[in-house]
């Protein structure tokens, strides 16, 4: 089982990535659960500036909207729970799941990054974040590997809560640039070009 957070920044290349994932799971018999980012739908939530409580659930509904977009016209199967029925590529629609398992803080520090990590924790699965950058940069240099504690209080391509969550639960996160064709599939095979965050 692999949890793959598919960033909203990749909305224009997401269908290509999903096609690659489906081909990969079809040929290997593995299971990938895609956790969608919020994309342009979450940007709208930020613009209207609701209360933190309302923003939390509105942003999760934004993830759900992006999830419907990701599954539309692809063979990825939509699912709204963590009872994965078998191998293949699935897209999580997270609203009902998180409403019934309300364990995360209701703040913008917790975005789809930490939500995807939470899903990976629940399923004891590998966690890959696919985004539009090559990984974590510190002092202008791309980091191939670093400890989550090094990211505390630093603004990077992951949300503010993720480093704490990874440390608390002894988890890792791999960051891969989805705009580079072949890089995601290579990462699935263990050939990571990006940043490994060690929790």
From TrEMBL:
Keyword Transferase: yes
Pfam families: AA_kinase
Molecular-function annotations in GO: kinase activity
Domain Aspartate/glutamate/uridylate kinase intervals: 1-80, 104-151
Keywords of the record: Kinase, Transferase
Record-linked InterPro entries: AceGlu_kinase-like_sf, Asp/Glu/Uridylate_kinase, MfnE
Protein name, as recorded: Amino acid kinase
Organism (species): Candidatus Methanoperedens nitratireducens
């Amino acid at each position: 089982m692999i949890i793959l957070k598919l960033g909203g920044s990749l909305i224009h290349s997401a269908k290509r990535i999903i096609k690659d994932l489906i081909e990969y799971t079809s040929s290997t018999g593995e299971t990938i659960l895609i956790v969608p980012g919020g994309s342009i739908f979450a940007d709208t939530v930020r613009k209207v500036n609701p209360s933190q409580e309302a923003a939390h659930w509105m942003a999760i509904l934004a993830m759900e909207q992006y999830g419907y977009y990701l599954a539309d016209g692809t063979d990825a199967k939509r699912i709204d729970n963590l009872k994965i029925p078998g191998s293949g590529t699935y897209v999580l629609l997270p609203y009902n799941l998180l409403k019934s398992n309300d364990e995360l803080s209701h703040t913008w520090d917790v975005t789809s990054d930490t939500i995807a990590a939470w899903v990976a924790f629940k399923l004891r699965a590998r966690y890959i974040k696919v985004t539009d950058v090559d990984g974590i940069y510190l002092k202008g240099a791309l980091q191939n590997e670093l400890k989550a504690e090094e990211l505390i209080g630093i603004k990077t391509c992951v949300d503010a809560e993720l480093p704490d969550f990874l440390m608390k639960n002894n988890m890792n996160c791999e960051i891969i640039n989805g705009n580079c064709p072949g890089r995601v599939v290579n990462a699935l095979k263990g050939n990571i070009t990006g940043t490994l965050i060690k929790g």
